[in-house]
């Protein structure tokens, strides 16, 4: 009996680590590519807007298909969808590495995003199915949550090492053996599970969501280069607006919507959604611009640029578990407020950064960003889940993850509207002033949401939402 118990504990750990491996590569691929972007630009002789699509093509596909992947896994089997997602992600990573044109790279990054969308929600569902006891589930989810911060922070460091000693192509090749190991472990250890009776997938809502996200981001990225009245920019902007309007009208009137509009009657849930968007706009946008600043303006090598962000990754790694503990002890208000204040400090200090700013000042900024990001993830998830009835907690958490990916995409897309001149080594001051002001506004919004999500009005809205669910 004892041997069997030990085996079961080891099996659970292997399942947890396998799920964490899948999360690690999916999340790391958001930031690991940032350090490689100047090398990709040099190889392909391409422009900033194309570079933005290398990043946003991936994050948009993940954001678009997360909810559909989760519901599909519930229907046909979580293990099966996890293996399919791993195989798709691994194949796409290899294809990215052998890409010969920017168009091929962007297309294969989108294929990566399709695979990535199957990994995050499905792996989380597997963890909740395997870890049934309350305390062990909390510990498992805590480890799972910390992987997000670690992988995002480690991305620039790993990317810098790979690009400096090998090539930007190996940023993608490195995923292949990790994915192969995860597929083998999934086949051997992960049990199959599914829901016997599930609602039909909302393919119309899914199509409208994809249309909205891609049309909107396309118009944002292309606007500075082509102008508002360029036919493709104007038409995609209009299509995006129409798509999101039709989406909410359609979702309100069907029985099994992809996203139920009534969710947004809950102030805590709505606050969590905007927290995810604003927080990840700042974080991923900063990492994107910081890479260009270090390599294009200061002449850092990819390795130097990656290693310089070690303070950010280290602080985020230390703070993330403490944020979960703080939420458990004192609620979400103070951690969210601390996140907003830290990110506001980042935005303010960046206004004074020049080409010759001492690295110690940048390290201070990285520490503030690490504190802010470390304080962000747990409160978002908890606020989203607690903002909905228990029966809707899984969907609420999935929507929060989707909003994070939307924030990642906007963090890369929006700066193109605000950068005042090309980024070159001849500049003494960064052309990012307007971007830092935007990030400052996002940080102020985070501070405001820390109050709103915990206000008496928020508690009153919960009672109203429970009437519908």
TrEMBL record:
Top-level taxon: Bacteria
Predominant location: membrane
Membrane-spanning residues: 14-37, 49-69, 81-100, 143-166, 172-191, 203-221, 233-251, 263-283, 303-323, 335-353, 359-382, 435-454
InterPro entries: EmrB-like, MFS, MFS_dom, MFS_trans_sf
Subcellular location: Cell membrane
One Gene Ontology CC term in the entry: plasma membrane
Topological type in the membrane: Multi-pass membrane protein
Gene3D superfamilies: MFS general substrate transporter like domains, Multidrug resistance protein D
Any Pfam family matching the protein: MFS_1
Keyword set, alphabetical order: Cell membrane, Membrane, Transmembrane, Transmembrane helix, Transport
Domain Major facilitator superfamily (MFS) profile per the UniProt entry, residue ranges: 15-458
GO-annotated molecular function: transmembrane transporter activity
UniProt similarity note: Belongs to the major facilitator superfamily. EmrB family.
Protein name: DHA2 family efflux MFS transporter permease subunit
Annotated organism of origin: Enterococcus faecalis
Taxonomic path: Bacteria, Bacillati, Bacillota, Bacilli, Lactobacillales
């Amino acid at each position: 009996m004892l041997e069997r118990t030990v085996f079961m504990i080891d099996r659970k750990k292997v399942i947890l680590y396998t799920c964490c491996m899948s999360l690690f590569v999916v999340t790391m691929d958001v930031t690991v590519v940032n350090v490689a972007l100047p090398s990709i630009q040099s190889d392909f002789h391409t422009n900033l807007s194309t570079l933005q699509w290398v990043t946003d093509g991936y994050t948009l596909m993940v954001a678009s298909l997360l909810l559909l992947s989760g519901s599909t896994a519930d229907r046909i089997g979580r293990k099966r969808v996890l293996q399919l997602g791993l195989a798709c992600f691994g194949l796409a990573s290899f294809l990215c590495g052998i890409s010969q044109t920017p168009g091929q790279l962007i297309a294969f990054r989108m294929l990566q995003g399709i695979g990535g969308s199957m990994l995050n929600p499905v792996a989380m569902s597997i963890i909740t199915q395997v870890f049934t006891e309350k305390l062990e589930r909390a510990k498992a989810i805590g480890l799972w949550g910390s992987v997000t911060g670690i992988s995002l922070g480690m991305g620039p460091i790993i990317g810098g090492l790979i690009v400096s000693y090998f090539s930007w192509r190996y940023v993608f090749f490195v995923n292949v053996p990790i994915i192969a190991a995860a597929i083998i472990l999934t086949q051997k250890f992960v049990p199959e599970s599914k829901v016997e009776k599930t609602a039909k997938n909302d393919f119309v809502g899914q199509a409208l969501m994809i249309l909205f996200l891609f049309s909107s981001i396309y118009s944002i990225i292309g606007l500075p280069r082509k102008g508002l009245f360029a036919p493709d920019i104007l038409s995609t902007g209009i299509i995006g607006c129409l798509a999101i309007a039709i989406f909410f009208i359609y979702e309100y009137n069907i029985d099994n919507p992809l996203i139920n509009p009534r969710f947004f009657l809950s102030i805590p849930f709505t606050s969590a959604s905007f927290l995810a968007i604003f927080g990840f706009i700042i974080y991923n946008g900063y990492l994107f611009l910081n890479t260009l600043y270090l390599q294009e303006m200061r002449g850092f090598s990819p390795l130097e640029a990656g290693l310089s962000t070690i303070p950010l990754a280290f602080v985020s790694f230390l703070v993330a578990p403490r944020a979960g503990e703080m939420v458990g002890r004192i609620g979400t208000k103070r951690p969210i407020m601390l996140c907003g204040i830290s990110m506001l400090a980042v935005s303010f200090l960046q206004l004074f950064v020049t080409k010759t700013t001492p690295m110690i000042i940048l390290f201070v900024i990285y520490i503030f960003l690490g504190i802010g990001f470390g304080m962000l993830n747990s409160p978002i998830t908890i606020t989203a889940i607690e903002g909905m009835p228990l029966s809707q907690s899984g969907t609420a958490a999935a929507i929060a993850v989707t909003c994070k990916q939307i924030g990642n995409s906007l963090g890369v897309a929006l700066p193109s509207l605000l950068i005042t001149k090309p980024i070159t080594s001849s500049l003494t001051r960064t052309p990012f002033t307007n971007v830092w002001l935007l990030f400052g506004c996002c940080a102020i919004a985070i501070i405001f949401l820390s109050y709103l999500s915990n206000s008496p009005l928020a508690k009153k809205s919960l009672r109203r939402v429970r009437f519908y669910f």
